[in-house]
Write a structure and sequence with these properties.
- There is one protein chain.
- This protein has two helices and six strands.
- The protein has 108 residues and is α+β, with helices and mostly antiparallel strands.
- It has a single domain, classed as TATA-Binding Protein, CATH 3.30.310.200.
- It starts with a strand and ends in an 8-residue tail after the last strand.
- The C terminus is likely disordered.
């Protein structure tokens, strides 16, 4: 299990925007994450279509998002983390330094 903390820019509601963006992508038929479990304003659990594992997102009062990645193999865990950081970077313009945790991007 890996835990990654994503710190949004000032006055940015990252969690709500992230969940809405993934829902819009999924609705258009291109999404790779499927939301499972209960719907909540503070937490979401997603499964990936291709890789075995789950992604648990939690939001705190300061809009900081904590992502817990669980997968059966370290390779699937790495791929899920890579997809999450790419999703936040491409769609929300977050710099690489905003994804803090035990994750290092390949080639960095």
């Amino acid at each position: 299990m890996k835990i990654v903390e994503i710190v949004p820019r000032a006055r940015t509601r990252l969690y709500g925007t992230l969940v809405a963006k993934e829902a819009a992508i999924r609705k258009s038929g291109r999404g790779t994450y499927v939301r499972v479990g209960r719907t909540s304003q503070r937490a979401a659990r997603w499964k990936h279509k291709k890789f075995k594992g789950t992604l648990q997102l939690n939001r705190d009062a300061s809009e900081r998002v904590t992502a817990k990645v669980r997968a059966s193999t370290p390779e699937d865990e790495r791929k899920l983390l890579s997809i999450l950081c790419d999703l936040t970077g491409v769609n929300f313009g977050c710099a690489e330094g905003h994804c803090a945790g035990p994750y290092n991007r390949p080639g960095a």
